[in-house]
Design a protein that fits this description.
Two copies of one chain form a homodimer.
Chain A (H helix, E strand, L loop, with lengths): L7 H16 L7 H8 L3 H13 L3 E4 L3 E4 L1 H25 L3 H11 L5 H10 L25 E2 L8 E7 L4 H10 L6 E7 L6 E5 L2 E5 L1 H6 E4 L16
Antiparallel strand pairs in A: 1-2, 3-8, 4-5, 4-8, 5-6, 6-7
The structure holds a DNA duplex.
Chain lengths: ~240, ~240
DNA sequence: TTTACAATTTAGACGCGGCTAATTCGTGAT
DNA sequence: ATCACGAATTAGCCGCGTCTAAATTGTAAA
């Protein structure tokens, strides 16, 4: 109810922590990871973490990492909601290219009022996910995380459906769009090269070998309940 | 061509100077006027003026006032273009009320990219004025200031057309909308009270007595070339 | 012409968010 | 059990934009 009056910088840090927590598995997020993500020095991160800890938005365990508190996660989700509504609006209503919308939204999200947020939501028909397939948090701070895994973790031989594509890297996004790997696309995992080699997949009738950066950016779900047996079918080409 | 990299604060000051120069008649704008307009101390204004003067955006004549240079005016018009395109978009495409759009645009204008500016412009069909009747500067920094005067300066007995309504005061704007004094409305000036008394006008078949703040916020043009003779017709009620 | 006052500028300080350099802490290797 | 090293924190600084208090200046009145 009370306005937290979080500054733009604070919001960026909260968003970063939320993102890193989603991305990796570990709970505690290290200072270095945040620093790298935000292109900022480690000292700046520590400084901000102490500030956010005082505000009760973050639990800071010195030398061991930080994690969002309930209030912090709520604040992060509010920013994320702004971001994804904007992204959706920019793409669908103003024709901003898929791979540019993220950067635009990053700048606009901090200037979006609650009223305008509601208007965008309504104009879009209350969407539940953005153009990249990422779920849009609801107004009350709920987010439905679809049960998806990274394509990197998909079993060879299975056919999966793309649910979500990370929107941070515009070039990667453009590449994926070119391949036809957009949310909803069906991808057949053919084989995994040895020693962290490329993942061979078939999508839209064509085969590709995808590197690690790519397969970690794409989230998929085993659509047709392929009874996740360990069938190591390796049908290349 | 070169990015001036003007900060948000700098843009706000440039906008303020431009506005005050338009509003009043004098060329040189005083420190106090800027300070009041931006709700900032006079010392802060002087500080910023020196900074802007160094950047060549402002001509600072110590103790005598400042005025925008060509570069400064260009920068101000760029911000103003962002502002008015946003205002127009918010009103017509998202249904934001007339009197709220200004505040929203004030926050969004600094985060609007050139690309998005172009998309808004196109989506709106390349408008030349915003919902308040204010002209929208063109991309190349041209602005067509329509030959209008303040309603306060209109001669009693004439009938004028509202061309523009200042958008800074939401409450005033709501009041004017209620009266039907929107751009395009025809207003008959009945009489002017003595000693800066209220201006009696007829609009939409009804008569009103308007205070100074109101008549200075409304710009009008003598539409039907009413041969501006000094006919002091005083027909009240 | 002098003077008083209001407007303006200067001086000095603060909070924010950032940085570099130095220090402290955890932990994996010995 | 120790040690070395990388990660994290602390210390101290900077620029921006703001402020209050103390000069300074322009000008209008006497």
């Amino acid at each position: 109810m009370t306005e937290s009056v979080t500054s733009q910088a604070e919001q960026d840090y909260l968003k970063a922590i939320y993102h890193l927590a989603q991305d990796g598995e570990r709970e505690k997020i290290g200072t270095a990871a945040i620093a790298e993500w935000l292109a900022v020095s480690a000292a700046s991160v520590t400084h901000m973490m102490k500030k956010l800890a005082e505000r009760g938005l973050v639990a800071h365990h010195p030398y061991r990492g930080v994690e969002l508190t309930t209030a912090g996660e709520r604040a992060a989700l509010e920013v994320l909601r702004h971001h994804r509504l904007l992204e959706t609006y920019l793409c669908t209503q103003l024709g901003v290219p898929w791979d540019q919308a993220h950067r635009e939204a990053d700048r606009l999200e901090h200037a979006l009022s609650e009223d305008l947020e509601a208007r965008l939501d309504q104009a879009l028909g209350f969407p539940t996910s953005d153009p990249h397939g990422s779920p849009i948090p609801t107004k009350d701070g709920t987010i439905i995380a679809p049960p998806s895994r990274k394509l990197a973790a998909a079993m060879p031989g299975t056919t999966v459906t793309v649910t979500e594509v990370a929107d941070e890297d515009a070039a990667l996004l453009a590449y994926l769009a070119d391949l036809g790997m957009v949310p909803g696309a069906r991808v057949t995992v053919l084989a995994k090269g040895p020693f962290d080699g490329p993942l061979h997949v078939r999508v839209g009738g064509r085969d590709y070998a995808l590197g690690d950066a790519v397969t970690r950016a794409v989230h998929v779900t085993t659509a047709t309940t392929t009874t996740t047996t360990t069938e190591e079918v390796a049908g290349a080409e």
